Automatic annotation (TrEMBL):
Family: Belongs to the ubiquitin-conjugating enzyme family.
Summary of subunit composition and partner proteins: Interacts with RNF138/NARF. Interacts with BRCA1.
Domain UBC core: 4-154
SUPFAM superfamilies: UBA-like (SSF46934), UBC-like (SSF54495)
Name of the featured protein: Ubiquitin-conjugating enzyme E2 K
Entry superkingdom: Eukaryota
Positions annotated as active site in the UniProt record: C92
Keyword ATP-binding annotated: yes
Record EC number: 2.3.2.23
Enzyme class at the top of the EC tree: transferase
PANTHER family named in the record: UBIQUITIN-CONJUGATING ENZYME E2
Ranges of residues in domain UBA: 159-200
Keyword set, alphabetical order: ATP-binding, Nucleotide-binding, Transferase, Ubl conjugation pathway
Length: 200
């Protein structure tokens, strides 16, 4: 990795570790390798959102051209959000693409991702299924996002009816992650979710 990138990310890594703002917002970062080319981030679900109480892991890859190009970031923890792929964790956020500026930092990225959880942009989606649910049935979107936060990110709140549906399909031998994804994409209808699971 280029010397400028290493020096810069080393400084930013320390900044995140020492920042009161990131500590207060329950944002963490750790090294995956000693070369500072890959980091693991963690953000807490913001209060008063369906993600509250969840801990969301991020994969952060630092390119050799950093800080002139943005880090490559994706969610490792599965999440139900219009701007984040429910399958791959890919993120649609302008500062990770064409709105990146060399003055931005790792701290900026992590705080922006946490803010994105509180303010979805369904008209610029990464996941069309989630965005459609967000626009057409906001309450179901919130319940589904809360359920995903419970199942995948350890949030304490879940929906008992959704838990029963998950348990029912899991008892039929389907894998839990596939069950949650199928039910979520089929508006929690067991029959159509079962058809989807059987056809995959």
């Amino acid at each position: 990795m280029a010397n400028i990138a290493v020096q810069r990310i080393r400084r930013e890594f320390k900044e995140v570790l020492k920042s009161e703002e990131t500590s207060k917002n329950q944002i963490r970062v750790e090294l995956v390798d000693e070369n500072f080319t890959e980091l693991r981030g963690e953000i807490a679900g913001p209060p008063d959102t369906p993600y509250e109480g969840g801990r969301f892991q991020l994969e952060i890859k630092i390119p050799e051209t950093y800080p002139f190009n943005p880090p490559k970031v994706r969610f490792i923890t599965k999440i139900w959000h219009p701007n984040i792929s429910s399958v791959t964790g890919a993120i649609c956020l302008d500062i990770l693409k064409d709105q990146w500026a060399a003055a931005m930092t790792l701290r900026t990225v992590l705080l922006s991702l946490q803010a994105l959880l509180a303010a979805a942009e369904p008209d610029d989606p990464q996941d069309a299924v989630v965005a459609n649910q967000y626009k057409q049935n906001a309450e179901m979107y919130k319940q589904t996002a809360r359920q995903w936060s419970h199942v995948f990110a350890g949030a304490p709140v879940s929906t008992p009816d959704y838990n029963r549906k998950i348990d029912k399909l899991c008892s039929m031998g389907f894998e839990k992650n596939a069950v949650v994804a199928a039910l979520s994409s089929k508006s929690w209808d067991v029959e159509t979710a079962t058809e989807l699971l059987l056809n995959n």
